[in-house]
Amino acid sequence: MDKNQLKALAVKYCLEDLTDSSKPGTFLSNLIRRLELAPDFIPEITKEYLEKAKLKSLLRYACKQLSFDEYLENARSEQKKRVKQETIKAEKNRKRTLVKRLFQKYDLPVSSVEKADYQKLKTIIEKVDQGSRLDQKEIIWLMIARKGNYYGYYTHRLREKYHKNEADFFSMEFKKTKNPWDAINASSHFRKCGQSKKANTFLEKINDTILKTKKVNSAFKTTFGGVKRDLKEFDEALSFGNQAHILTPNNFRPCTLLGAVNMELGKYEEGQSWYEKARKLGAPQKLIDDDLRSILMRSDKSKRKDLAKFLYKNDPDRYSWVKNILNSSQSSKINSITDKIDSDAQ
């Protein structure tokens, strides 16, 4: 029989939804062809096949327990159930594939997710992907749920998307409220998702007249200075940092900004002086150390070694981790910790 004849037979027996029914040489297509040509002999292996394939009506018809009309009535019912089940299965597979792709989008292969964490993580990722905000409890859960990983499930890409959502939220809030703190928060989040140019454009349009207190004016200049630092406009970054420090001399944030900029300019003594001042004003030691790590990792080879030498000489115990960098043959090892740094430093 040719393909068209097999297809016609598959339709006749209400089996066209099963691919093998119209494919030449398959067990099922050979079976229904035999039923047409020699229906009186049904081997045991055929009965076993029909049992396993759950084609109960076809088995009964082949065993002469049903007339063909009775078979058709039952076969149509079976076919409807099969089609319905396949539709449900296809939809489940489609959703499973979409979730798999979504997880991969944020560098989280489904195979790496603990079974107990799957549903909660899926809900959080879908929420972030749709542009919704996360609360702090959800962020903390992401960071601590997957033990053995530095950031848990809170991958670099997931953090970037979270910060983008926050930046969009606060920039929209600022348009409505003209509250400078919304602008400052928006700028901070734009920086953390790698959109410092967008932050720069956003901040440039803000009128200084809304900065009515020293505290808000200092915070605005500090975040603007941080943006300028990201864009390597270091003179402007220093200017903003100095203005912010004059406005709020007891706030450590302008000091960390000035420390970072001076370090990046190669003015290590001055940079360290600003960091020490920040520490005395309450800056967490971890914030300063993470900032220095970040600067080190982003520096070119020669500057990286110079800064590593300066830090190690300044405090060999505290900066013992720079020893690998001092050994040029091991300098490539620093790449393994680059992704662990998500410094909030100014």
From TrEMBL:
InterPro entries: TPR-like_helical_dom_sf (IPR011990)
Protein name: Uncharacterized protein
Provenance organism: Desulfobacter postgatei 2ac9
